[in-house]
Write a structure and sequence with these properties.
Layout: H1 2-15, E1 31-36, E2 39-43, E3 49-54, H2 57-60, H3 69-79, H4 93-105, E4 110-116, H5 119-136, E5 143-147, H6 156-160, E6 180-182, H7 196-212, E7 216-221, E8 225-226, E9 232-233, H8 236-248, E10 252-256, E11 285-288, E12 300-305, H9 306-313, H10 330-345, H11 348-363, E13 372-377, E14 382-386, H12 392-401, E15 404-405, E16 412-415, H13 423-441
Helix pairs in contact: 3-10, 4-10, 5-9, 7-8, 11-13, 12-13
Length: 443
């Protein structure tokens, strides 16, 4: 086994390109041998086994953990029928059933489902919907309105509405369309409408929107929690302001709930937090992905209102101009249906509430570390924000030594654990995070 792992790591280093990495100075990934429950079994450089808790849910999608009996069974059953068939001119049971579940789980106005390959592609589709909707109505609205601090994917249209400072805009200047970015909303879920920071933000955002109102096809945001853009938590009231601006000026509202959906922030959808401020935050278009299949296969979906679907379809093109090869892949759809069943049967909302309590308690100790600027939690999300960039290799190694896998970025050491994490698992994760930060950034 030692020779096999060493050979695999050597080939990886020479030939495989990992996310956001350089081929000139490749990293040293850990070799994963297997995964079960909330743990992944690694082999170190010497071929020695090590079992660690996956505090990342494999980039937030493996909400039920690994080797899940119900999802494995769904995959095997579907493989016995067919793994794939094109969706152009054909349909099948898993797609119909998944579509039915999604329509039932989302707010009543969202009645049409378009399946996509990935979260980034779903944002491409949503933006295309908005552009075609206005073109069909005789309006050439070609810009999108959003807030700084967001992240919507790495393909071109999603990149264009991802934060222009923290994102990749500068690399693609002159190629990406230029959209309209309001300031990032004031930090904090509970930031009140009369808070001076919120008053200032609302005034400047309204003024900015008014200056571009006739150009805006849609407002696009990650409601309440910005994910890969920096794990910023913001107020449902600020989301409601953006909704109001879109409604006042005839634009659509797109919610990117790829990271926040399926209870990650507490309720089924982050938009459900609108009840806290007495606002209906139902979007015209909703993007979902990541946890949709419980992390088994890549799949995303775009839901929209009947008004949007009919508006797009009345246009010159006669339909939505998009059609992925693997759209509505039967294997992925079947697993997604089983995942949604498991989400319901496991009382995921209660699971997330329990995890949230554990994250709050366990991360409290980080507040006493001088290098820590802020600790924040929302649902099954826990963040230690540093005053300086994270020393990623050192913090990762320190957490691994304590039996936990984390993947820090920028100035953040964070966790989005699987919902099936037990109280002892959550305690182990938070303890490892705090100790890793203290040991690496405590000087």
């Amino acid at each position: 086994m030692t020779d096999t792992v060493a050979a695999a790591l050597a080939f990886d280093r020479e030939h495989l390109w990992h996310p956001y990495s350089s081929a000139l100075t490749p990293g040293d990934p850990f070799f994963v041998e297997s995964a079960r429950g909330v743990r992944i079994r690694l082999r170190d450089r010497n071929g020695q086994p090590r079992e660690v808790i996956d505090a990342m849910s494999s980039w937030w999608c493996a909400i039920h953990g690994y080797a899940v009996q119900q999802l494995d069974a769904a995959a095997r059953a579907q493989l016995a029928e067919m793994s794939h068939v094109m969706f152009g001119g054909l349909t099948h049971g898993p797609a119909v059933e998944l579509g039915r579940r999604l329509v039932d789980l989302t707010p009543e106005p969202l009645q049409h489902v378009f399946f996509a390959d990935s979260g980034s592609v779903s944002v491409e589709v949503a933006m295309k919907m908005a552009l075609q909707f206005h073109l069909a109505a005789g309006e050439r609205r070609t810009r999108f309105f959003t807030v700084r601090g967001g992240y919507h994917g790495d393909t071109f249209s999603p990149m264009s509405v991802t934060d222009p400072v923290g994102g990749m805009h500068s690399l693609f200047a002159g190629v990406l369309p230029e959209h309209v970015f309001a300031p990032r909303p004031p930090a904090g879920f509970d930031c009140a409408p009369d808070d001076p920071a919120m008053v200032t933000w609302e005034r400047s955002t309204r003024e900015l929107y008014a200056a571009h109102a006739g150009e805006i096809a849609a407002v696009i945001v990650e409601p309440v929690l910005q994910g890969a853009g920096g794990m910023h938590i913001w107020s449902p009231y600020a989301v409601s302001v953006l909704h109001a601006l879109a409604r006042e000026h005839g634009a659509l509202v797109i919610h990117d709930e790829i990271a926040t959906g399926f209870h990650r922030t507490g309720p089924m959808w982050a938009a459900d937090h609108g009840a806290v401020v007495g606002a209906d935050l139902t979007p015209d278009v909703l993007c979902v992905g990541k946890a949709l299949t419980g992390g088994y296969l890549t799949l995303a979906a775009v839901l929209c209102t009947r008004e949007v679907a009919l508006g797009v379809s009345r246009g010159e093109a006669g339909g939505l101009m998009h059609g992925p090869t693997f759209m509505a892949n039967p294997l992925a759809c079947a697993v997604a249906v089983a995942s949604l069943d498991l989400l319901r049967d496991s009382n995921a909302g209660a699971q997330v509430a329990r995890i949230h309590a554990g994250l709050e308690a366990g991360l409290e100790a980080a507040r006493g570390i001088p290098a820590v600027a802020e600790v924040r939690t929302l649902g099954a999300v826990g963040v230690i924000a540093l005053r300086e960039p994270v020393r990623v290799p050192e913090v990762t190694a320190a957490a691994i030594e304590r039996g936990v896998w984390v993947r820090p970025f920028r100035n953040l050491v964070y966790t989005m654990p699987p919902y099936v994490s037990g109280d002892e698992d959550v305690e182990a994760v938070t303890s490892a995070m705090v100790q890793a930060v203290a040991s690496v950034h405590g000087d």
